[in-house]
Amino acid sequence: LLRNPLESHGEAIKVPLTHGSPSSEEGMLIVALNRLGFRKTTHSNYNIFLPCPLGTFSNYTLLTLEPNVEICIDCPPGGFYSDSLAFVGKGCKKCPNGSYVAYDKKPGKSVSNCKSCPQGTETDYFAGYRACPCLEGHYRTHLFEGCRKCGKDGIVCQDEYASLKPGYWWQWRNDSYKLRYRDFIKNLNASLPALDENSVQYPYALPTPYRCQVPESCEGGLDSLCAAGYEGPICAVCSSGYQKQFHSCKKCPSKSWIVGQSSLVAAIFLITFTLLTWKRKAKLAMDHGHNLMDTFLSKLKILIGFYQVTHGLLGVFSYISWPSSLKGVAKYSEVLQLNLLDIAPAHCLFPGFRANAFGDLFVILSINAIAIGASGVFYGIRKRIILQNKSLEDEEKPAKISEMKEVVYKNVFFVLYVTYLSTFSKTASVLQLACRKVCRDKNEELCNEYLKADYSVKCQGSTYNHLLIVAYISTAYILTLPVASFIALWRYRRAISTAADGDGSGVGTELVEGLRFLFENYKPHTWYWELIEMSRKVILTSGLILVGHESRSYIGLAWVVAGVYGIHFSWMRPIQDPFENRLMTTSIAVTVVNLGIGAVSKIPAENISDAVDKDMDALTMKILILGANTLVICLLVVQYFVYLHQYLKEWRKNPQWSFSCCLALVLPLNDLQGEIRGMVGKNMLKAQLQTGMMGKPSISACAKESGAMSFNLSRGDVDRDDANTTEFRELHLKKNKHRQNHRTIKYDLGTQTEVTMPSYVATHWFLARADISVRTLNI
């Protein structure tokens, strides 16, 4: 028998056609030729046998007499080749370990066709039916191409295919793509995979994974399911019956709890401002003519500002795994943001109602509009009442109207500035700069864009464009309010200086008096500092919303900004009152500490070990965090209890009951002691001794305030007393000015003042125990 490498039928082995059994002579000859690696073809009256070509093998176990049955089998791609004619065996020859025959080069006809396996594969083992097995932690989308590394971008690898890691979300283009990938995985794991062109590859791009805002909200896997309570893109939308708290979806509380919480918050705000407004009518006869409302608002402003910044920081840097204790502090400070949809979630009360980011913006703008409108209506009604009051003289009515206008301005501007930070952040969160592009895969061109603050809102379409007009109006408002305030204060800076000297209240300066809480606790030359403080809050809590990158460098930048501001504040010391200065310094220091905690906390996107995160949850760390973040309010609480102790100690000597007595327990804040200590610290008493102008309360005012007696001075006595007081002040001002102009001797006046003043409301501070000693006067 001659093997013919030229495969010429003229020189091939010809066997006459027969229909005999394998046991016949002709059948035995055919079986023998098959065993020797010859394939048969039918031609006319003969069976023509040719040797199996290169790149094939003959499996001698396949014995058949049927015509047109292929005996020569091509070597599959991968680790197989055949360099012999009529090669007989159970399979082709194997390529050396770490080499393979490419899919487009099959079948392998020589060992030289076996090339090194591509990148990402294991080269120490036999290739098999692929381009070598993938390395640990790698996956493939084609049996005969390289493998890609897992462990980044939310991909997890198992059995050479990629799946979605828990804590990440992706979306398939359509269901057919997902089914096609499932079929590829099934073929990939088969012992004898199908090697047709459609089966050896997944021809489409895998979906792009996105890290979820809350890792527990995304279950991962090929289907990318969301946990209970989450839905929508990146599993960032709360399902019905859930409310959002720092990107986490919590079950809605009961309706009775929501109503009770809302009522309590409303009652606290209503009672506080009612008492403050009522108390304001009784001005305290103290240096600068300060009143309780102004002093209380200055402290309340610092307290509210600190917790607003704390809440805003955790919202902006939500991609950081903050310690649970710090999240708890921010959660309870959320009420200071005055977001009604958080205090009383409407979608929990009404399941069919859905509020989004624009709804939050509308609510905060409505609060501002209601505050302005209600104040305008109140002012109009009060003005009409005053003008129609016949018991008032004509010259008294303008003063009463001016006083009422001052109260209206004060309340309106305080509400606007309390809500300013929340208004700014909610406005910034709906602008186009705060949108995030979410592509289903890297090849998608028309990707969807969503608000990072609310993934239920698409940044596309006519609806969004129409709502964006409201955001632009709000942008104009948040830019106009501080600029207008600054211009107003700048224009009336002389009036501010006069007000700081205790003689600035009058008709025509109502706007300045309304903005008094902005400069009330600052030195005259730093009257603008509140606008700098507002800029710091905006940068820390809202400015970084527009950046949009989840990087440790941005919290580092915020840390640097807070630290530099703290140093500058400590150097300038713009606040007059020592206690308020300590309160503000403490709030800045705690903010720097919080940012430092965030800078060293774990960022899930960085795939860093959990060791640091475990340290952050330690009991000691929780105590330190809670202690630092409650230090600001503790300063006020401690001051209150010190006052309360002194008050009750004096009250026991002469017990009395009155509404004024009870009010002193509610709104003391130790203002009198703090302000007199502030006079000592700032040498205000020195200036008073130089000018001879020391504000002293009248006996009638103290007696009337104490409630011990009630009487009214005649109009002539009052006018004469006011005229004498005015003449006395003008005389001393002229003398002081003359002394400053003609001073030739340098004075060195040392003053040490010790004041002990328990707030005894029955006789007020004038009847309280006071020891004032001037130790030295050196001229």
Folded structure, characterized:
- The strands form eleven sheets. The protein has a three-stranded antiparallel beta sheet with strand order 1-3-2, with helices on one face.
- Helices cover 46% and strands 10% of the residues.
- It is elongated.
- The protein contains 25 helices and 24 strands.
- It comes from Pocillopora meandrina.
- The chain crosses the membrane at residues 257-278, 302-322, 361-381, 467-490, 553-571, 623-643.
Topology, element by element:
Elements: E1 13-16, H1 25-35, E2 38-43, E3 46-51, E4 56-58, E5 72-74, E6 80-81, E7 93-94, E8 99-100, E9 115-116, E10 138-139, E11 148-149, E12 155-158, E13 161-164, E14 168-169, H2 175-188, E15 210-211, E16 218-220, E17 225-226, E18 230-231, E19 237-238, E20 242-245, E21 248-251, H3 255-279, H4 292-316, H5 324-332, H6 340-343, H7 346-349, H8 357-388, H9 397-418, H10 420-428, E22 435-438, E23 448-451, E24 454-458, H11 461-491, H12 493-500, H13 510-514, H14 516-519, H15 529-541, H16 552-572, H17 578-600, H18 611-616, H19 619-629, H20 631-651, H21 659-666, H22 671-681, H23 684-691, H24 699-706, H25 715-741
Strand-residue fraction?
5-15%
- Count all strands and give the number: 24
Major sheet attributes: 3 strands, antiparallel
Assembly classification: single chain
Radius of gyration: 42 Å
The structure class reads mainly alpha
**Tally the helices: what do you get?**
25
Shape: elongated
- Helical content band: 40-55%
What are the segments in which pLDDT stays under 50 over at least 5 consecutive residues?
1-5, 281-290, 502-507, 609-617, 669-779
Organism: Pocillopora meandrina
Transmembrane segments: 257-278, 302-322, 361-381, 467-490, 553-571, 623-643
Keywords: Membrane, Transmembrane, Transmembrane helix
Protein name: Tyrosine-protein kinase ephrin type A/B receptor-like domain-containing protein
